Amino acid sequence: MRIFDPHIHMTSRTTDDYERMAAAGVRAVVEPAFWLGQPRTGPESFTDYFDSLIGWEPFRASQFGIRHHATIALNPKEANDRRCRPVLDLLPRYLAKDGVVAVGEIGYDSMTADEDEVFAAQLALAIEHDLPALVHTPHRDKARGTERSIAVVRESGIDPGRVVLDHLNELTVAPALDAGLWAGFSIYPDTKMSPDRMVKILSEYGLDRVLVNSAADWGRSDPLLTLRTAEEMRAGGFTEDDVDRVLWRNPVEFFSQSGRLDLSGEERVDVAETGATFAGNSILRGGS
Amino acid sequence: MTGLVELRAALGENGWLDDALAKITSDPAAVGALFPAAGRRCGREPVAPGWTADEVARALLLSAAPGEAETLYRYGDADEKRAVLKALPLIPATGETVSLLHDALRTNDTRLVAAALGPAARQLDAATWRQGVLKCVFMGIPLTAVDGLPDRADAVLAEMLGAFAEERKAAGRDVPADAQELLEQLKGA
Q1: pLDDT tens digits, residue range A181-190?
Q2: Phi and psi dihedrals of A31, rounded to 5?
Q3: Predicted TM-score (pTM) of this structure
Q4: In this complex, is the C-beta atom of B32 within 8 Å of any C-beta atom belonging to chain A?
């Protein structure tokens, strides 16, 4: 089986994780730029971090046979610190890079006026750079935060099919899908979403426009919960093709919209192995 | 060493590149937005010995704006950084480009370390160059990546390689064949 984890913070993980992930079938990841445990105080900490997401981390991943892409943004929490605001001016440099397949994570943390402004500015950057957007939904006051995020996305004019709303749950999935957005789910050991709850959601809402990720980071999390979800899907009566669709073809479809997803080599192997292709195509470099 | 004219011929016709070069000629800073797109626009397949299409395109872009080398390297991803390092010996030197080689040698990315020890390494002083060669041995980079190795390898490098080989033997570990071969050549010289 093959797994594409569309949201994982590998910067915070060890080489043991990379080994376990590769052994479990993880062949591609997307690492969104986000906050670290320690708040940053200026733009230069961000540029070093972004450089790592398009330099060192893809190199590290490649040593384990895993394709690594990134999403780049000023995250909602640090959007509230004026000292970090100049990061917005540095983003265009990074949004031009081959390895950057979306703008993200953007969205809300505490739903402040600063967050409103930075969220809207970065949706505009996504449109300008012809990139999809990865939107984090807040953990506190989630239902209202999700509604407000959908409104901001709608107002920006970006195609909703190029936006994923992440960290959804039983109560926020319907509004996201109804608005034409992609629905992202972060499977956590005991908080955001669990494998068995995920399977119930898939049974109820179907497999269209759904992304499943581990969102593993520096907190208590597990990069193999994508695999556990696949196992739970099979136990729940889903076919191997359903599993492949959710854990590989869906993220490929979403991030291919950037025109920069580079899975050359991977796709050829999988066509041979499973007979499956995405929209009849293999996903190659380029697209422009 | 292959020059820019041969590289351009190897790449073949490319309308995007022609337009990009024209833009940069009138506004050198325009290279900042064009340089990252070279792989998507010109491809990444090998076109000449040791050169891929994106590297050739980037060398040509940089040759039209040689003053931008440091900025392009600073904000480049790993492929862009590598392209700058490879292009340095082919463009008119401006500014302190040796600092870019030092930066690459501080990384743990084999592609960057190898590029810093290519033809660009002529700028490096002997001590830095020897450390770079030994770093290749540690990182498993084949010594064929080191430009001009037989001419530049000296007694001090032989001493360093000898000490490395002793350490490996004491630990019951292998000495990479290419390092052992070089050591023997230097001892015999």
Answers
A1: 999 999 998 7
A2: -110, 105
A3: 0.89
A4: yes
